[in-house]
Amino acid sequence: MTSQVNIIAVGGGKGGIGKSVVCTNLAIGIALSGQKVVLMDTDFGASNLHAMLAINNPVHGFQDLFNENSPNTQSLLIDTGISNLKFVSGAGDNPGSANIDTDKVNKVISFIKNLQADTILLDLGPGTNFNVIDFFNISTQNVVLTTPEITSVMKTFSFIRSVLFRRISLAFQGNPEIQKLVDHSNPGNANIETYTTDLLREQFKKDFPDHLEQLNTIVKGFTPGLVVNRVRSKKDLLTGDNLLKLVKKFLGVKATYLGYIIESDRVRDSVDEMVPFLIKDPQSKPSENLQQIISSLTNADLEFVKRDGKIFVSKQVRLSSGWEV
Ligand SMILES: Nc1ncnc2c1ncn2[C@@H]1O[C@H](COP(=O)(O)OP(=O)(O)OP(=O)(O)O)[C@@H](O)[C@H]1O
Ligand SMILES: [Mg+2]
Predict the structure, then answer these.
(1) Any idea which ligand is nearest the CA of 264?
(2) Of 71, 226, 250, 268, which residue is 20 to 30 A from 241 by alpha carbon distance?
(3) Are 226 and 256 in contact (CB under 8 A)?
(4) Which domains are seen in the chain, by residue range?
(5) What is the DSSP string of 102-155?
(6) Total-model pTM
(7) Whose Cα sits closest to atom 3 in ligand 1?
């Protein structure tokens, strides 16, 4: 038996909102704090995460898992040059690799769950197809990202709803009538008020009253953490509160606010230069923002300082109430 590894997935429907850049720097920060971390690119077919770590054309990746002669799974773990941090590439030669089937998804999921690590970070692709959602749903800490733009907020709302409805649908696999009801009520990007958890609850009350409690338990058990990226003003910060209110009101989901990252040339330049912004300058504003988010995720206050080319990490573990002196 392996002990349960912490899996953090970073998702949020829209493309280009900063999922990969945030996921990479989160992985680095958690690794620097002393945990053994594996960062995974699950954006099959369009994987580019290796570039953010200045790794050129990885030889091994998830595609190896699908080869006839079973690979040495250790060879998938690529060195990053950052202590405690390994990387698994989603790259492959197969042009159709974006559409991997359920069998393959299950192979990857079983590989992830059996890894020897403290924390695994999954960088997800854009969109809300089942491949993306199913990877998101194996995580133990769900992080959803949005930017302040309304198009991104709406896509992240839809992403959260798709995740929730997929959980409900899978939980009622033995009951095709419920599955049909849930699957058909998932309207993608349509009007947020069209299908709400309350509406679903009403239908359950009418047609499946014995399962209402299970439905409520699933909704209650989904508590994603929200990060707002590319914040430029105080007004932008309200995006987070608004999205939290929206998902509570229409989905009954209690999301928490993990923090935000400002819009900064340092982030953009770090991608161009292939040097993660946390490494380049751990005391820059976006790095400080990131430290807040890691602190919320790990329940420890972290501070990174760079001196003479070395990064020093200080860590204060938060005591729960009752233990404070
Ligand atoms: N806080 C920020 N400040 C400035 N630029 C940013 C910030 N966050 C992201 N960017 C820019 O946005 C670009 C896209 O980011 P990234 O590749 O992480 O998005 P993504 O959500 O992973 O996209 P995809 O859905 O295609 O995988 C980055 O290359 C960077 O230039
Ligand atoms: Mg990406």
Answers:
(1) 1
(2) 268
(3) yes
(4) 6-150+223-317 (3.40.50.300)
(5) HHHHHHHHHHHHT---SEEEEE--SS--HHHHHHHHT-SEEEEEE-SSHHHHHH
(6) 0.92
(7) 263
